[in-house]
Amino acid sequence: MKRRDFVVKSSAAVAATTVFGTLSANTYNFDKPIQIAVIGTGDRGSGLIPFLNEIDGVTVAACCDVLPFRLENGLRRAGKQAKSYTDYKELLANKDIDAVLVSTPFATHGKIAMDALKAGKHVYCEKTMTRGYKEIKEFIDLAESSGKIVQTGHQYHSSRLYVEVVKMIEEGKVGNITAFESQWNRNWDWRRAVPDPSLERAINWRMYEEYSGGLVAELCSHQIDFANWVTKSTPERVMGMGGIDYWKDGRETYDNVHLMYEYPKGVKATFTCLTSNAKDDYQIKVIGDKGTIILDYTQAWFYPEGQYDNAKKVVGDVDGVSGATITTGWEEGKGIPLNIHHADPSKQALMDFRDSILTNKQPISNVVTGGNTAIAVQMGIDAMHQNKIVHWDDVSLS
Question: pTM (2 decimals)?
């Protein structure tokens, strides 16, 4: 089966909040907290537990990890009510658990998340959703038939800043989009401390191809997801290169990647990740014939095309978008700041997951959008490793 025959590419499917029609009725009482378990209590999983503790209607009921010190850290943050597991299958057998948050190494996402769906749990699966075209199809098929909520951890889909910026783009703020330029640069070897050499691969799994999709899956995936979202499409072809050129330390995944994706209507999107220079850190540029919007983690700026003098004098609403205003004047080097109030994107994503369970509606960052991004990520990895242009329609999901 070709991917065009399986993954729905229409704007309705890519942007939908409900993608599978009417699901089976929920039995949750709004007054009864959702019992959620965190599978994988490393940096990301443990880092999300304090947010879960702050969200009304959610209780962290269990933690699971194969590394004792990671598990202890997760349990310490979760609180005394959380049960302890080293085998995620034993956790899934607990009928009191309503939902799971999967934050394990990338290569294990699909297996654990699908086992959770089979056990009747709702699933929040950290990005990138899963690895390999065949497993992406299996995941989506199972999610469709499960009647459960599946949210993927592309948290910027939940950021109210990003939501408002997408609305502004849709309303013509930048005009016709011609390009995206994205980067996520760091000056860091990306390593975690290892208390014992035998734990090197378990802790620094991002460095090893057995477990990891490298910089593309771990970092670029967020920005690829955004380009899919804004264009309401998926890339038609991908080219790129990368290498292990700076950190000669035994790693297997690239320490730099440079990718170009082509979307419908000739829109080009570049994605760069460096680990040897942190200039400008994280940034997305949406470039159109009327202007450019630049986004970082929590802020955005607008650069009107050819309107610098007028822009310095503008005060007022931006295209009538609620909560989005232009402040007085031009912030030198930053354009016109867009003041949009929003919560931490990761916390907001978890709140949205709770709301999706309670209202029985699939989230905006769902198994289809997550699957499309996972395919695009795999295309980028294949383009670099196979030194070729990878076309959307040339890869089989069978």
Answer: 0.90
